[in-house]
Structure formats: C-alpha cells, structure tokens
C-alpha cells in the first residue's frame, strides 16, 4: 500500500537514537535572561481636569 503511493516506511536505528538522546541530555540550555523594562515616565502632579464628552 505504501509503495503504491510512492512512500517508504522509515525506522530509526535504536542505537543511534540512544546516542542522540544521550548527547541531547548533555547540552545545557542557556539560562533565561529577563528583559530589562523601560523606566516609567514620571507621574504628573498637575490637578485633574474633568472633560465633557457629550454635548
């Protein structure tokens, strides 16, 4: 059925799989460095003003 569709069944060599998993276990991912936030703008000390939004 697969060959009639032009496909082949692939299988992984168990020895190569174990070697790849062992090599991947030795790799230590880089630590996550959180981004530095921008400083907040200074808060205004002006008095609040009420604005009419309807006419």
What is the topology?
Elements: H1 14-26
Descriptive account of the structure:
The protein has 55 residues and is an all-alpha fold. The protein is 24% helix and 0% strand. It contains one helix and no strands. The chain has one helix spanning 14-26. The radius of gyration is 31 Å and the shape is elongated. The protein starts with 13 loop residues before the first helix and ends in a 29-residue tail after the last helix.
Order of helical and strand elements:
H
Shape: elongated
Average residue-wise pLDDT = 90
**Which band does the percent of strand residues land in?**
under 5%
> Using only CA atoms, what is the Rg?
31 Å
Rounded to the nearest angstrom, the distance between the terminal CA atoms is: 76 Å
User: Care to count the β-strands?
Assistant: 0
- Compute the number of helices: 1
Report the structural category. mainly alpha
As residue ranges, the low-confidence spans are: none
State the share of residues found in helices, binned by percent: 10-25%
> What profile does the largest beta sheet have?
none
